[in-house]
What we know:
Distance between the termini: 103 Å
Number of helices: 10
Order of helices and strands: HHHHHEHEEEHHHEEEH
Strand order of the largest sheet: 2-4-3
Number of strands: 7
Helix content: 40-55%
Oligomer: single chain
Strand content: 5-15%
Largest sheet: 3 strands, antiparallel
Structural class: mainly alpha
Amino acid sequence: SEDSETLLSPYSDHENGLPKPASPPKRRRSLLPLAVILPAVLCFLFGVWLGNSSYLLDADKFCTRQVRLYWSPVLDAISPNYSPVKFNGSFLKENVYRQPASPAVDAAWEALGINYRSMGIPAGRAVSAGLSTSQHVQISGEHMAGGGFVADLEGLHHLHCLDLLRQGLGWNIEYYKARGTGPWRDGDGFARKHVTHCLDILRQQLMCAPDLSVLGSVWVIKDEPGAKAKPFVDFNTRHKCVDFEAVRAWAEAAQLKE
């Protein structure tokens, strides 16, 4: 009938002076894409966070990476495992590293890994490790699976340099000259260049990463009649140190075959 046609007409409300009920359905439809996209984005971000959570939550690795300019294979293999260590700052009591030259002293320094063979850096990681494909020595797959670059761990080179300075001390040098090993077999001229190279490398390293800790003083009295207490610097300080043994063990295992 005419009445029913009027009720079914889409214009019936408008013609009767009533507002058209069109806006609410359109608003609901416009929210549908957001309802689909937002959960997808949140799931993606959660996946990214989950995939990197081990890195983000490992404060030791995070902090160590932050102060490095280049990638190091050590940080992919082990955690720095920082822990408190009290330095042995004794002035009069000499540990083995301070004693006059002898086979036992040499063995102690050798055990630190100062003469380990080079390791290999995969070709694909060379640039991120600060190596130049046009300048640095490369090795074939015969020496390393897939080929790569010859490299040495810089921290162990610093210890090698410190040991060389020890050998060059006035009360040690004749011992090593007589043995004729290392730079001492090539004459004083070359030995001097080697020692001063090491001296300056250590200077630069200490200036690059100066220890910002403070040294207090303690009262000491000399063991002599009438001695009075005087302040003396306390070198037995505590530091937060990398697990050196873990680094050394990794470097030992990473040596290229002879």
